[in-house]
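User: For documentation purposes, I need each entry recorded in a consistent format: the amino acid sequence on its own, followed directly by the corresponding structure tokens. There are two entries in this batch. Please keep commentary to a minimum and don't merge the entries.

Assistant: Recorded as requested. Entry 1:
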Amino acid sequence: MAPLDTAAARWVSYVVMDAVHLPAAGRRELLNLIHALPQEERHSRFAPKRLAPLTGGPGSCAIRMLQYRNLDWMGMAKTLAVMTPTYLSAATYGVIGAGCKELTPRLVTDFAAPLGIDAYELAALAGIVLSEVPRPPSSEAVDAAALLWEVRRLSATQARHISELARTMRGNSRDGYLVNLPGT
């Protein structure tokens, strides 16, 4: 379940950021290409970045689950910015993981999207009551969560290749990334 190669984290957010701007067929093609890549051998043990103080609270658990998608704090910031209505600094994800910032219903709903789990289930695990009915994730967010899950098994070289391919599939529209995609 752990990412194969922590060096691949450099490319993971870019895969997602470009993929969410592709049509559904492009996102499926990208996922199929990832499935077709051979599984390489693990060369080192995965050790997620330790947060101080380790609280073991709901924020720490949510951040750790995102780390198991091979997202570092900057990757979390970039990925959630294109998948959800929330844009936070990379350092804020560290603060959440350290238990110095409480999880809000909005954050629980947002974290559920890249994790690919139901917001109510994550809220129940975190002990958070959702006061509003969360909107269902957009098709882009659902596909991005599937990509995140699959990209974690890639080496850095493979992840870079997929990132470059996603950028090429997107075309020359590198003027920027849309944040808060429709339907999120």
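Entry 2:
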Amino acid sequence: MKRYCSAILLFVFAGLFSCNGVVRPDVSGIAATVVEQPVPFSMDELQQRTFGYFWELALPGNYQIPDRWPTKRFSSIAATGFGLSAYQVGVERGYITRSDAAERTLATLRVLWELPQGASKSGVSGYKGFFYHFLTNDQALRYKTVELSTIDTGLLMAGVLSAQMYFQEDNTTENEIRRLADLLYRRVEWDWMLDKEGRISMGWHPEKGFLESNWHGYNEAMILIILAMASPTHPIPSNSWELWCETYEWATFQGQTHLNFDPLFGHQYSQMYIDFKGIQDDFMRRQESDYFINSRKATLANQAYCIENPMDFVGYGITQWGLTACDGPASVDTVWQGKPLTFFTYRARGAASQQIIDDGTIAPTAAGGSVPFAPEECLAALEQMWTNYYDDLIGQYGFKDAFNLTYTSSTHPKGWFDIDYLGIDQGPILLQIENHRSGLLWETMKQSPYIRTGLLRAGFSGGWLDAEDNRNSH
């Protein structure tokens, strides 16, 4: 990993340079201090730093990815899924060797397979193949009373399957990666999570059973539905995609007519793993669109809303925008520009036809995770934030989670800047920039028979799906 230096003491001579900082001797001429200088923005620099979050912070002994850092609370199974995919980026970009990535991947999969599963309230990590949303840092067991999470398990399995398809060499390590990945995916009892409406519940608690909320479109759960439909062991019914689409809201917002969902992560997570360019289900065929185009329109609408800036928040503009789920400055009601305003801590922020949740907090992952959809607009935003707020927003793992220039106080005179990185927000930045640059995750997952089966069962056709069918027929 290429690392940048904060202020450190070194025994050097005046005029030397180190780690992007200028070495300046003190009055004694012996000790010297490296003064931090902004590193010019580049996708290479951003990816390499962001990769470090997953490679360097994986928890010792269980290899799960922390939910956040430097605050230490618990690991996130969705972030662990993103980590499994991040290791592949590391290989392709030359940050790590293939053998190192394979060994780490295998160690992670072994832990996931061997972690205890059961209906108990504690002392387990999952049940019926699903995993709890958060796991303890030490033993990777259920954290407090969190739910058995369907979407987080789905995102974990997307990462697991990406590992299965990426590590295809015929050697002991990679053969075992493929075997364990298959076992993990086949173990998930997706059909057990169906509710009386025939939709997948958002989760389950051993204390009180299934959550009343279920997954229906449109949001981040496309990947969940597709994986559940494709299961060779516990598939959900063939009409599941039709049920998913029944609650779609096609509307115009900020001049963009598209399938609306307010936080941008809902337009990003599934498309980190599935290339929806040019393939259509029945709904998108009727609209003469596809989900990739839809995410572009959602990204541009998010930007347009921030440019309009109806609440007159500080800093919003054409290259400073991005509303999605992220950390926030505080939980407090106040008045801003004569209007009532509530600041939030962690919250799904966004703007769409259904609702607008906005307190002036911008998250770099909003633009970072949408780079493939609108590269010019998203990269300009990332460069603007990197360059203008380097000292407060950028650190060893790239972008910290969020910032809010409207929220000021005696301790935040320049506005609020997060101290933490979040794994589920780091993942989209790293993986989607790679998809934009090389299509790595997309091309890897196109080879997965499970992804193809799920898409076909959901009624998708066209584009690369038809091209693959034509190649297979010759």
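Summary note for entry 2:
The chain has one domain: 43-472.
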